[in-house]
Design goal:
Elements (H helix, E strand, L loop, with lengths): L3 H15 L4 E6 L10 H8 L4 E7 L2 E6 L2 E6 L4 E6 L5 H4 L2 E7 L4 E6 L5 E5 L1 H9 L12 H8 L6 H5 L10 H10 L13 H20 L40 E3 L7 E3 L6
Antiparallel strand pairs: 1-6, 2-3, 3-4, 4-8, 5-7, 6-7, 9-10
Helix pairs in contact: 1-8, 5-8, 7-8
This protein binds a DNA duplex through helix 7.
DNA sequence: ACGAGGTCCTGCGAGC
DNA sequence: TGCTCGCAGGACCTCG
């Protein structure tokens, strides 16, 4: 679920609530979301930690602590919410991580499918992790030529490459479909065959769409909620995603769908996108 | 070296 | 109604 706009929305909601707060106690309901950290170490490290800032990197929410970083990648169904009081049975069902704050509220990471991951990284480990991720698409220092050079090296389908977090971060299945439609590029085209001017257009539309989605607080298809529990609204602005068989907003041709690219659902207009 | 495909997990809707 | 199947916004791993 959460791609860049969704995680950005969550982080913007959480930051003012959490900055400066201290975690009194933390509990974890399932170990299978942990990566390179044991439950015992996570829980012990969080107890007493002060939250200095909350940031986003790629599709990760990064909680900067006075003792390292709690990094959560919400996967397909992860969400965050700050509760004022103890959780009801219903709210507890998918609560994976709970952190009780010094003001009595409880920060909860909820994840129905638990495909998300939780990491606890010191400065060195974070530097390595960060370095393995591609550039931020909204960072102005990512020039079109660099974008084209990075992606254009792969013979894989442009859609798969655009979603590869080592190439450029933050773009998932929804926004890859939307950006390729806007840039009029066939998602199955090998990235090596996409021309420099097309990469320029693609980057322009990736940026435009991600920014518009942030303005709309993300896309809620099912699980995604903002950091205050609201639904996003960008699902009403999607032009191709989940519109198989419906008319193209540009030319009226029926939108096509396939699973041939990386086994992910792809939506496109075979007339507009070449 | 790279691409294809399976894997992790639960819920939901479609179809029988 | 109740069951099975396929699919879901992500990313990792192994195999050939």
């Amino acid at each position: 679920m959460p791609e860049l706009p969704e995680v950005e929305t969550i982080v913007r909601d959480l930051r003012p609530e959490l900055t400066g707060r201290q975690i009194i106690k933390a509990t974890l309901s399932h170990d299978d979301v942990l990566r390179d950290v044991t439950r015992q170490r996570l829980v012990r490290s969080l107890a007493g930690a002060r939250i200095e800032d909350v940031k986003r990197r790629a599709k990760h929410a990064v909680f900067e602590l006075d003792r390292g970083r709690l990094v959560i990648q919400p996967g397909m169904s992860g969400s965050f919410l700050i509760h004022d009081q103890d959780l009801t049975a219903e709210e507890s069902k998918y609560a994976v991580l709970r952190a009780t704050l010094d003001d009595g509220r409880i920060l909860v990471y909820r994840d129905v499918r638990r495909l998300g991951t939780i990491l606890l990284l010191n400065d060195g480990a974070w530097a390595d992790y960060d370095a393995a991720l591609g550039p931020e698409p909204l960072d102005a220092s990512l020039r079109p030529a660099k974008f084209a050079a990075r992606l254009g090296r792969s013979r894989a389908a442009i859609k798969k490459v655009l979603m590869d977090q080592r190439m450029v971060v933050g773009v998932g299945n929804i926004y890859a479909n939307e950006a390729l439609f806007a840039a009029r590029i066939d998602p199955s085209r090998p990235a090596t065959k996409v021309k420099p001017e097309e990469y320029r257009e693609l980057l322009k539309h990736v940026r435009r769409i991600l920014k518009a989605a942030i303005t709309s607080k993300g896309t809620t298809l099912r699980d995604y909620r903002t950091g205050t529990g609201e639904r996003g609204a960008f699902q009403f602005e999607l032009l191709v995603y989940d519109r198989a068989g419906e008319p193209c907003r540009v030319c009226g041709t029926r939108i096509s769908t396939t699973h041939e690219i990386d086994a992910r659902s792809t939506f496109f207009c075979h007339r507009c996108q070449r």
